[in-house]
Each structure stands twice: as C-alpha cells, then as structure tokens.
Design a protein that fits this description.
Elements: H1 5-15, H2 19-28, H3 33-51, E1 60-65, E2 72-77
Helix pairs in contact: 1-2, 1-3, 2-3
Length: 78
C-alpha cells in the first residue's frame, strides 16, 4: 500500500509522534491507522518506562529580574 503524506499527517495529529516514526509504523501495518497508532502508543509507553528510573540531579534553574523590574525571565542552564 502507498503511504501518503496525508496519512502520515493524520497519524501525527493523532499520536504526536514524529513523521518518520509515523511513516514506518504505517508501512509496517500496511496503512492500518488503528494498528499503527496502537503500536506507536505502546512504543511510547515502553520508552517512558525505560526512562522512569532516571534521576534528574544535574542542572540549575534560576530566575532573573531586570534592574527596572519590567523584564523577568526564567533561565535553564547546565
């Protein structure tokens, strides 16, 4: 089956996954949108479980307030 850009776009909107992963999933499941979406969801859950054990113990979060008090921005720095 020919995978069109419209099919990839629909799957992206539905799952929030990148275009290449969507295209590969659609190719793997012969254009079946449901099976491709389920596969991408399971793949995403597997990634989340894999990353769940990681600790976020590096980096600094700080705030900045400009001298005139009008321009405060948050900054993230490693």
């Amino acid at each position: 089956m020919q995978i069109t850009a419209e099919m990839v776009k629909q799957l992206r909107e539905r799952t929030g996954v990148g275009p290449m992963d969507c295209k590969k999933a659609l190719q793997e499941f012969d254009g079946d949108m449901e099976k491709a979406a389920n596969f991408l969801r399971e793949k995403g859950l597997a990634k989340a479980v894999k990353k769940a054990g990681r600790a976020a113990n590096e980096g600094v979060i700080q705030g900045y307030m400009h001298h005139n008090g009008r321009d405060g921005r948050s900054q993230l720095r490693n």
